[in-house]
Amino acid sequence: MDEKQIQKAISESLSHAGFYDAKRQAVWERVKGEKPMKKRNLVALVCVVVLTLALAGMALASALGVFGQLAAIQEEAQTAQRMQKLDENADMLNQQVSLEAPASAAPATEADTTGQMILNHLQERRFELTLSQTYYDGTRLYFAYTLKTGAPSQFWQGEGQPTGVSEWLMEETGKRYEQVWSHEDAALDQTIQSWLNHHSSSWIAFESWSLGDGAATTDGTDLAVVNAQSWMVDSCTLQGYQEVELPEELVGSDWLEMELCVLYGASLYHQDETGVRWAHFAQPENRGILRIPFTVRRNGQLTELAGSARFESYQARASLQASDVDIHGKVVLSCPGAWTDTVVQSAEGAGDEDVIISYHLMADDSLARNLEGSFSAPESGVLEITVRFDLPKELDGLTLVPEYAMAGLKPEEAIWLQPQW
User: Fold this and answer.
1) What are the angstrom distances between the C-alpha of 293 and each of 119, 258, 284, 356?
2) The model scores a pTM over 0.90
3) Hey, which end of the chain has fewer CB within 10 Å, N or C?
């Protein structure tokens, strides 16, 4: 399993382990306890977390919000522009929540490796989450945050087989650590490899904590993460932002009763002559999840953009929304079945038929590339292409130019967009 082909771990709290796409959701559900784990019967226990909301919040180190600070350090111009617009249009909330992990219900024995780590380091760990800025336009929610904890993450290592692991979440027979995992932090990789490779059988573990990917409404509806970025300010402070997309039933709501999760736990690697394996462990009292409710108001406006076009071999219908930050939406094509067959057969759309795989925006006398660009074939004869563009100066005179897999751009098949004032 090559890290180059591995998607980002379930969440930042699991960022030290990689997963194939097919395994990512399953592992996340198992960690959360929503699906039964083999050889273990999980019982969800209710943990009451006392939340303290400080509406005044903490003062930022500069006049910029978190979005503005992020804009200042971006190398990519498009991302910097979007962060700057978010900083200008977001509500400055600075709502602060203090919370503490529960005490462990059962003391661990000296021989219980994972139990000792939970008892000595994970239980009663304190966090402070500040929801710094929010921008919500009725279809997407952006929020910037700061997450602090009272002590740096701990690191443990030992020889032999670790105890207290009920199940290894991933095992690679006949492999070494470096053949399976790699991390952005090269020093971390070197530390892990050095310890595991210098012993016939050994283990190494370290704490991880973060804000979970995405959010949820208080009734359990998932708000899937679209984009996210985070960075360590120091060893005890994490800052970042997330962008989440609302499901159709919530689009247009003026207020969102939402829930964020602070995740904390530890990753454990064990390597011996038979292979290498990984486990994630957390407190059984709450599975390492602290839930925090927030209320977010709609503070952004949308302008609907629509257009359609008919050609000899297909029809196209575009439905986009322009917010204070960008333009996003989708183009739906009614096309020959051979087109959708080609998409299904080849992710690049390069099969027997030359098909449209993306659209670009002609605005301000220049062509803006599609920043999102996923496409799918939900049924035979139907293609859906998602689009996202930087916000142009004006919303009049916009056109969408199709890009074919083989022929490239075809301006003669452009779709004219009209604002729906």
Assistant:
1) 27, 6, 22, 42
2) no
3) C
Dihedral (CA of 119, 122, 128, 130) sign: negative
Alpha-carbon distance of 156 to 386, in angstroms, equals 45
Report the alpha-carbon distance of residue 61 to residue 190 in Å, rounded.
34
Report whether 283 contacts 122 (CB < 8 A): yes
DSSP 352-412: SSB-EEEEEEEETTEEEPPSS--EEEEETTEEEEEEEEEPPS-STTEEEEEEETTTEE-GG
Q: What angle do CA 50, 215, 237 make, to 5 degrees?
A: 65
Q: Average pLDDT for residues 321-326, to the nearest whole number?
A: 93
Cβ 188 vs Cβ 291: under 8 Å: no
Contact 9, 18 (CB under 8 A): yes
Query: What three-state secondary structure class fits 100?
Result: strand
The DSSP symbol for 120 reads I
How far from the centroid of its chain's Cα atoms is residue 95's Cα?
22
Residues in the chain, overall count: 421
Structural contact between residues 149 and 155, judged by C-beta atoms closer than 8 angstroms: no
Residue 108 pLDDT grade (very low, low, confident, very high; cuts 50, 70, 90): low
CA atoms within 13 Å, Cβ hemisphere of 32: 16
| List of residues 6+ apart from 383 with CB closer than 8 A | 332, 333, 335, 339, 340, 343, 355, 356, 375, 376, 377
CA distance 216 to 236: 26
In angstroms, the CA 56 to CA 293 distance is 17
Cα-to-chain-centroid distance, residue 7: 11
Residue 11 forms beta bridges with which residues? none
CA dihedral 336, 342, 343, 348 (to 10 degrees): -130
Which of these ranges, 77-91, 161-175, 287-301, 349-363, has the smallest mean pLDDT? 349-363
* Dist. CA 48–CA 416, nearest whole Å: 54
- Cα separation, 364 vs 393, whole angstroms: 7
